[in-house]
Design a protein that fits this description.
By secondary structure, this protein is mostly helical. The chain has 2 domains: about 35 residues; about 35 residues. It has 4 helices and no strands. Helix 1 packs across helix 2. The relative contact order is 0.05.
Length: about 70
Amino acid sequence: MALSMHEQQVLAEMERKLTAEDPVLASRLATFGSPALAAVLRSRRARAVFSLILLAALAVAILAVFALHPLR
């Protein structure tokens, strides 16, 4: 069932007030329903990039541990 013209105007006014009063919340609500990380990682390229970034972070963490740990 479609909204009446008056209801559409009331909702538009509420949206304008929300955006003016709390822009952070308004931006979060605007992105509500956008694809989550799981949906993005469905592509092969995205999984490959994510895996490489994860592997690089792991390598940096291991190197940091060995650099901070005194050798015997």
